[in-house]
Specification:
alpha/beta; homodimer; two-stranded antiparallel sheet; Rossmann fold; Dehydroquinate synthase-like, alpha domain; seven-stranded mixed β-sheet
Chain lengths: ~375, ~375
């Protein structure tokens, strides 16, 4: 009991409100070591299959397994190769079969210990074994903590496009240990930070102001870090609660993502050239500049967004991507295959200024094409 | 408009009530030929990927594609090998990739034209491409019309057990053409009929009485056939509406299924020895006899259930399965792997008489073992 009171004091809790599928996100230091207690208190009698990758396992798996064991939770672990290619049919099958072989039942849980790749794959596994098991997220990258672990999107990549195969499957519990972020490279941290900035740019101008002042503390691991993560989770949870299956408002979360995904695809998902958060950073800068060009947004606001991303060490122009340039055609093709297209017309998230993003349906492909041509030329 | 009034006259409609996911089941003759009109009226502008198998394609695909074309519906078709092995990871991947390659969007539909195998696989594909597309069922076996096409269960088989991988994904529309059942063998028809009998045995004693009188007409293709299908769909829809995700009452639909699945597994899913409906028929007879043994049900009711199944040409004893016998151990092992087990104890659907089935949790494995030993000996 002392332990629980103690952990309750040091972590923040954000509630995602989805009726019967509501769940808590715990945010704070040391959660890998107290995970067993947190799980046992909420889901008594549960058994767990921990899914992780070799890199994360080296840092945190032993400690997590000890914590589960200490709380009397029976666990098996499944360790995958790190990296985006793990989000494949082959690894999906491997993990599904391992979970079935462990004889876990519907009430038991798949626990994802890792970044977005592990979380997306493990969540998909939890969504389809016995037509849906419980799912617990322990995101270990900033990107996963502020974005992919919240909202229930899971999946793998198709050879024809990223994240084209998956399900919506909400976790029962998310635990974001802020200490584990110390093992990230600065580049990885910055990539996650792009999604934090995104919540400010969408509809939280106050958050954006606060980030302009507190960026250094967030990167250095001060108390601002947990606050930034909690505020990001709150922002995402609010949108997800309003639109769980992405029929409407949830599309706002794609600010920067249509351009970002196209750039990632054009780079063939080569993380040496571009990682997801960097694609989103460039995509958000492009969305602002495109909005300026369409007369929707002031040039001043676009520059302010761009400056902040640059200060965080993020790219903001297509030419910032190393390893060669792209043709307008290949980017347009990649945009056409984006899974959020609707009936052939293009849907973009555009903006009227900092914190004033909106869903623009039926954007003319010709306007996008002309804009990209100028960006690539300039 | 004349056409629509006409079709509305000749088919029956059963509504499955699931709030935002509610849908209609149309039941009647000639629906393959009027499918295009029915779909266009309900889902204007939709594009369709028809998934079917070689056998069914030979009988009905051309007519369905003509009907879609006449209604202005853009369609591609994906033809799979027939049989249970098609419910595999490999074919799942093939169909998912074909649907993505056809550039269908979330609002478009996968249409399953076939029996349970095609419906389960195609429904799973619809559930996971772009995290969920529309799904339309045109079941072509009696089993699929009265059971698997209603209720949203989809999936494939794992090497470790049947239907262990899948999702709940409700169709937008089900069309059961009663004419197509004329292409079934008597054995296939009887296997589907086992599930019709099941609804009577669960909680519709009036239906069971009616079946005792009208079995011949149902098999011969009289008007009783559509009535039996509609009543079965109503029975299933009622249970599904009350318990969409099988947390409680829906388990009643597993009457005969725990034993049935174990027998199918013990036969290694060799359809020459046993098909699903036959396993269910034996399983229901076993559930009744087991209930008699436990003092729950009168011997008279068990005999009445058994007689009706036998009259329909269905097996009712383990020894009715050709090709050798089984050990108690292998059947118990197969029961332990059943995906409806809960926390190690066994859940069975037992009965207090015709139409009085109930969920018995925590059945002692020893009692099942002793019962099976006697059944195998006798």
């Amino acid at each position: 009991m002392t332990t629980m009171t103690h952990t309750a004091e040091i972590h923040r809790t954000v509630r995602v409100d989805l009726d019967a599928r509501s769940y808590d996100i715990l945010i704070g230091p040391g959660l890998v070591g107290t995970a067993g207690t947190e799980i046992a208190a909420r889901l008594p009698g549960i058994r767990v299959a921990v899914v992780t990758d070799e890199t994360v396992a080296g840092f945190h798996l032993r400690r997590l397994l000890d914590s589960l064991e200490a709380a009397g939770i029976d666990a098996v672990s499944i360790v995958l190769p790190p990296g985006e290619p793990t989000k494949s049919y082959r690894h999906l099958e491997t993990v599904v079969e391992a979970v079935i072989a462990a004889r876990l039942e519907r009430g038991d849980a798949v626990l994802a210990l890792g970044g977005g790749v592990v979380g997306d794959l493990a969540g998909f596994v939890a969504g389809i074994v016995r037509r849906g098991m419980r799912f617990i997220q322990m995101p270990t990258s900033l990107l996963a903590q502020v974005d992919s672990s919240v909202g229930g999107k899971t999946g793998i990549n198709s050879p024809q496009g990223k994240n084209l195969v998956g399900v919506f499957h909400q976790p029962s519990l998310v635990m974001a240990d802020t200490d584990v972020l110390d093992t990230l490279s600065r580049r990885e941290f910055a990539a996650g930070y792009a999604e934090v900035v995104k919540y400010g740019l969408i509809d939280r101008p106050g958050l954006f102001d606060w980030l302009e002042t507190n960026r250094a503390g967030i990167f250095a691991g001060g108390p601002e870090r947990a606050e930034a993560i909690a505020e990001s989770c709150r922002a995402k949870a609010e949108v997800v609660a309003a639109d769980e299956r992405e029929d409407g408002r949830r599309a706002l979360l794609n600010l920067g993502h249509t351009f970002g995904h196209a750039l990632e695809a054009a780079c063939k998902y080569d993380s040496a050239r571009l990682v997801h958060g960097e694609g989103v950073a460039i995509g958000m800068a492009l969305a602002h500049r495109f909005s300026v060009r369409l007369g929707l947004c002031s040039g001043q606001d676009a520059v302010r967004a761009e400056r902040h991303l640059e200060a965080a060490g993020l790219p903001t122009r297509i030419s910032d991507i190393p390893g060669g340039t792209f043709s307008v055609d290949e980017l347009m093709r990649a945009i056409g295959q984006d899974k959020k297209v609707s009936r052939g017309s293009l849907t973009f998230i555009l903006t009227r200024g900092i914190g004033k993003a909106f869903i623009a349906r039926e954007v003319e492909p010709e306007a996008v094409e002309a804009f990209l041509a100028d960006e690539l030329a300039g």
